[in-house]
Amino acid sequence: MPKEKYYSVRMRAAKNGAHEQGGKHISGGELLSTYNDLKHSIDILLNKALTHSRGKPDFMQIQFDCINEPITRIKPLPIKTNQVNSVETGQALCRELLALAGIRKEIIEKVYTNLPQYEVTRGAVLIDIQSGERIDNREEKGVRVSRMDWINANFEKWANYYKMPKNLRMKEALVLATKVCAHPNTIAELCWSDDPEYITGYVANKYIGYQRITQLKKSGDERGCRIFFVNCQKNQKSYIHYLEKQPVFIQWEDENGTQVN
């Protein structure tokens, strides 16, 4: 019996025109779907864009295409929530975690100095860990990680086990961080949302896991951050291809090693 085909479903939404015309980025999203579930997947992404706290979009693009490549399955990163009482404490913890992940302190400080340059970037910014310089040359577009998902039943069993929220935001963030950090050229990821109502962010790394930090910006701030600290001077093209094109499912197994379907 042939295996069921999957489709990559992607959404992006903006206000005051398309992104390419200078429109304000409102929302984006990624799902992998079977053909029978395409309408449901599109509805999820449509609702996400139409109800986002950044505003009401007047441009939206939803597209899907069939995945013909083998889909890689990856275990989710270990997760820890760090409760902090201020943005300053949260950002100080970010620096500590990045250093623990292997980023030199002078590179960390250089990136923080340059953060205002990256705040308008819609996708991720790639930072070389040796120089601290941006190397993706994508300007405001950045690098958009794509073709990834987590089957909802498996995600909910993981969330129940670890007593984590079963919301789409948590799922999407951990899926992306897990895919990014699975590549050997990724040293660490630093992220907080451009959603003005969501102030939690994270530092992620294959060794320290997915470290949630409860305050990384003040409520009402629409400035976000997604930075990948990378070591890929020689094979940057293949690294970006992995981020954008390699299909990935996150798959959790319980502590006894039993795969949860």
From TrEMBL:
Cofactor: Mg(2+)
Name the record gives this protein: 6-carboxyhexanoate--CoA ligase
Catalytic reaction annotation: heptanedioate + ATP + CoA = 6-carboxyhexanoyl-CoA + AMP + diphosphate
EC number: 6.2.1.14
Listed NCBIfam families: bioW (TIGR01204), PRK01322.1 (NF002360)
Function: Catalyzes the transformation of pimelate into pimeloyl-CoA with concomitant hydrolysis of ATP to AMP.
Example GO biological process: biotin biosynthetic process
Gene: bioW
Keywords of the record: ATP-binding, Biotin biosynthesis, Ligase, Magnesium, Nucleotide-binding
Subunit structure: Homodimer.
